[in-house]
Amino acid sequence: MVKIRGYKVSNLNDIVFSFKQEMSYFTDVPLPISILIILAASLCCINSHDGNFVFDDSEAIVNNKDVQSAPLLSIFENDFWGTKLSHKKSHKSYRPLTTLTFRFQYWLRGYLNAQDFHIVNITLHIIVSVLMLFVLNIILGRNNRKVSFYAAALFAAHPVHAEAVSGIVGRADLLCALFFWLSILFYNQCIFNTGMVWKSCSLCCCISCIAVAMFCKETGITAIGLCGIYELVIINKVYPIDIIGVLSLKYSYKETMHFLTLNRGSIFRYFVLLLALVILLSIRFSIMGFLAPTFEIVDNPSSFIDSLFFRVLNYYYIYCLNLWLMVCPIWLCFDWSMGCVPLITGFNDVRLLAVVILWIILGTFLMYTFSSSRSNDSRYVIMGFTFLIVPFLPASNIFFRVGFVIAERTLYIPSAGYCLLFAIGLEKLSNRWSSPKIFVSMYAMLILLFFTRSWVRSNEWKTETVLFNSAIRVCPLNAKVHYNVAKSAADLGNSTHAELEYKTALRLNPNYTQAMNNLGNLLKDRQQYIEAEKLFRRAVKLQEDFAAAWMNLGIVLSALKKHEEAEKCYLTALSHRTKYPDCYYNLGVLYLEVKRFGEALSAWKNATLQKEAHRRAWTNIVLLLDDLGRSREALSVANHALKIIPEDASMYFNIANILGKEGNFLDAEKYFKSAIARNPNNPMFYTNLGVLYHRWGKFDEANKMYNKALQINPNLQGAKENLRKLNSIRL
Questions:
Q1: C-alpha distances in angstroms, 658 versus 495, 624, 634, 720?
Q2: Taking the model in full, what pTM does it have?
Q3: Which of 46, 74, 197, 679 is the most exposed place for a label (fewest CB within 10 A)?
Q4: What pLDDT does 259 receive?
């Protein structure tokens, strides 16, 4: 039973009724009800709980050895995508603690279960949304808890968060936000705790949370700025006009020293924050090797504009789009690169109006904050803009070039600032309006609208096919979107649609080498080798170090019997990517075709050294050794391979064939049966076991095996011929 303002509620209906009464007067909402509503609003993405691994999840989790098999220490040596930080193509995104949570979940389950990962993300969003209420409560104070509630509820349901919550790689932003809020709460404890020990412990916890947030995602370090501004503006009630007064020597030396004496605790905390900033930045840059990541022009075209004026102008337009996504989250897209946001290159572009409006908004804010007004509202507005701007700085292109145009998940923490400003504005308007119920109703409708939009958007993140196709409606000029639609269609076996989308991607971006490579593979699989060769040659001409395209060109040239050129292509691919087991495998196939058997064995052995479980390489080694009359060596290799790939049916089959040819029928029978147990639908296994029984004189068993093979594949000529011979003998 919960007591609320003099009356008791004992069930959910009473709680809802009491909430309606509270809302009708636009007064404070009791904390239990606030938490309950925020929790309900934060479930807006719960329908993504049974989604798949989509888009960046594949690279960061599914194909990332750091999550599954690599030594634990490698998590702290590689970037978020599993690439060595020292590698020239590393994005330098160092988030080991986020990767560690992926690794922990894999260890618990024993395999990758997408549903587990989605549930953790949804849970984290719920925790972050509730924690935001407590953070805003300490910032706005006891008298403005209704504003804290309205801001936190809006944050919980905001559709721009769908990517961070429903996309599993968004966990970096969720974890960062979690420790971001905790750092502010601990900092507040440090300020108001009475004992020196508790103050020190709280400050240490604050710095630790900031460090953890930074190692979950780089944005976490900006929590230092939030803590500093919180103490300056909220605790010490220092306004921008006061700072200008100090700088212009408006205050006397005595007045300044008196202020500093009264705030010695603040000065000490600022010193600790500054020291932490220097240490954390030094660690971060040393991990990067003091080198900035390198990006291509397609990743962030505006950052490559030669003119500083137009480069900054395009940055401001991107800021406008980010702000618009928070104000009106209709256009949501998983990727905003490659023509999704055309560049502003002249003064006749109508989009300049958006930049002008942004400048007006920023100018109005600056005038308001630097005015002589010393009201609490102005301090809260300053904190709102601080939450909006400071966490966004790492993604702003101001300090360094980033590898994206817009990324919705980078707005996860900044959107808290927008929600706070919106709630402050709503509260101010309601106080001046004769009927505040109108504003409460509008607010409730907005929450419901945002919840619905988030629900729809999170549903789009469940599968790649739906996600990629949804992006075409938002960014039809984005070549990467069409590329991903094509890739998804190809994976589903729809090669016709895939070809069409790859060609659309190349029409929008004629230099899109990945699209050329994938379209070339599509044509190669159809044996359209001439067209595929043209695409691969064009790809390697545009990107000389494109190892996959070099390998694929080698495969096509080998199919066209241009063996010398094919060999050069394979070797070129290996020069650009030394660890490339598939390339070694294909090189071995080439050597086999030109009867360079020793080099073929060597190439396949290299493939197995680089990838122990390379089944095709092991199979080819065993078959070639057997064909060369080295059956004992073939058996030794096959038995070694079984230790690495113990469930590979074909390896049991190959061993059985070798033993059968040697006359070791008993052991051969055992291996044939092991192969059938692992793959009971392969007719060749039954056919060859039938041959073994045939030679062994077990004609009834041979008859059963041949008929079993023909049941699976009635057109299998080998089984038909052997059955005919068997019947002629028995007659």
A1: 39, 12, 8, 23
A2: 0.83
A3: 197
A4: 60
